[in-house]
Amino acid sequence: MSSRRPDESRPGARAYGGEPEDPHELLHRARRLTAEGHPAAGRAWERAAAALRRAGGTITPGDHADALDSTALDCRGGARPAASPLYSRAADLHERAGQRGKALVSRARAVVAGQDPGPAGRAELAELCERAVALHRTGRATVAQTARVLVLRARAWADLLDGMPDPGAEAMALRGELGRLIAFAAPHRADPAVLGPLADARALLGRITAPDDPAAALVHLRAAVADQRAGGRPWGAARHELLLAGVLRAVGAHQEAAGVLRSALRADGPAAPLRASDRTRLALALARTLAEPASVGRGGRGIGDEEVSLLVEALDGAGGAAEDPRPAALARLWLGSVYAERGRCREAAALLQDSLSAFAASGDEAALVRARAWLAQSALCLGEPGRAAREYTLAAGRCGRWRDRRHAAALVHRAAHAFAESGAPERSARAYERAADLWRAAGDHGAAAGALRGRARQVSAVLGEAAAEVILEEARREARRGSGRGDGSPLGGGDARGQETGATRTGGEGAGPWPGLSGLPEPYGRPGRYQVNVYGDVGGRGRWAAAAPRTRVQGCV
């Protein structure tokens, strides 16, 4: 299993220092990078092992175990399932080498890297923690190794909080345990190896404190970032800075959040490279942070040239299958929607089409609906109403089971208009009829009346005015039901005649986007109350989000 990061195979990829050729120098370098937790450690072990083979030497069990650990740490995204067996094999080799503390860390990582640990996994992690503490008491496990095992158990516990019977009580208990862990590790912070697990413990404490006490969470998260940087591990600080910026956004400190993210991106360099997915996620979060204040009072997300540049940067730095594909897919969706708004519809369509495969793999319905709706908008811009109708219909089918029926109704309504523009009045009439039914089910009689008027126009073209008048009378009855109720969907329903102007016009690239696009749910939803999403947001409401692994940031600590 190669530990090579996807960006290391590209021309001009970063290297860490010089590249020695002597096998012993390469071994020394690999050991040093492993001790630092450096992202280049896996690649360094590959070079060292190859040089040893050429010289007729062999790698020791202990070195082989460190190499496997480094390889497994790079297994993210599509490669993540390979991490657990690699850790398990590393643990066996650590045992053979007499490195019992390291073996426990690898075994704990194997549990965490596998499927989300249920009761059996939690019991195994608790047993590993007891063994680590016992080994530490007898001097056979270091403070750093013991703290790492304890942090891994705490992380698995945190990932399961939202699905527990009493998440609040469990979170309080976990905060107490993390406090004791920090008290155990902090006196040994002079050891650089301790600063990593200490920082991770503080960041985890900040994460589960943020929903209830954001001010306290900010203290913990700032300390976590400081510890990682004090230990010379800016690549390790990236996840903590992402979370810190998310909490700062939540309390309205957008300028400070942007400063944190900019600092994290500036820290990326040849001697301290960020992982590809971390760079992508930081750039994506910075674009979101800059856009959010501009969206207030403007009815939508404000996107400037800097945000566009950040989205392009996020895509340029995105990894391949070995990295988490979600941030890059979101960047494509967002950049595609911006290009569509700016009339660059052919570029928009290409980006949006590319995002669909990643969203389909994750199974996120909101992302698929939003991508197809923007694809439809791009098709209208390009003068392809038939394609737009198909995309709107597919998007509507995806959200047909959502609690808010207005989304499906608005999308079917849009499909009906696109069918009309494509010269298919029969299909348009059926779609308008379906839209009217959906608007009625949603309780929006004004929008239902608009859909019926649209249907009447299509029926008139095919069957004549007498048939259309029957439908218009039904539309008038619907309008009377809606009068005085304030009907009229914010998602872009309402009178079809009004809807068929401006945003729905297919005449050229100057046509504006359908306002209802901004009302569609956000991709990947809000995170669970104690989970972190790809932007670094934490503190969402509702147990539904916790059940979806897609809301969590991948990667083992």
Give the arrangement of secondary structure elements.
Blueprint: H1 23-36, H2 41-54, H3 61-73, H4 83-96, H5 100-113, H6 119-137, H7 143-160, H8 167-185, H9 192-209, H10 214-230, H11 234-250, H12 254-266, H13 276-295, H14 305-316, H15 326-341, H16 345-362, H17 365-381, H18 385-398, H19 406-421, H20 425-441, H21 445-463, H22 465-482, H23 496-499, H24 543-546
Describe the structure using short key phrases:
557 residues, mainly alpha, 0% strand, disordered C terminus
Give your account of this protein's structure.
The chain is an all-alpha fold. The protein is 66% helix and 0% strand. It contains 24 helices and no strands.
Number of helices: 24
Largest sheet: none
Low-confidence stretches: 1-17, 295-301, 493-511, 541-557
Helix content: 55-70%
Beta strand %:
under 5%
Distance between the termini: 20 Å
The SSE string, one letter per element, is HHHHHHHHHHHHHHHHHHHHHHHH
The radius of gyration computed from the alpha-carbon positions, rounded to a whole number of angstroms, is 27 Å
Global morphology: elongated
Tell me, rounded to a whole number, the average pLDDT. 85
Total beta strands: 0
Q: How does the helix and strand content classify structurally?
A: mainly alpha
Structure, briefly:
This protein is mainly α and 557 residues long. The chain is built from 24 helices and no strands. It is 66% helix and 0% strand.
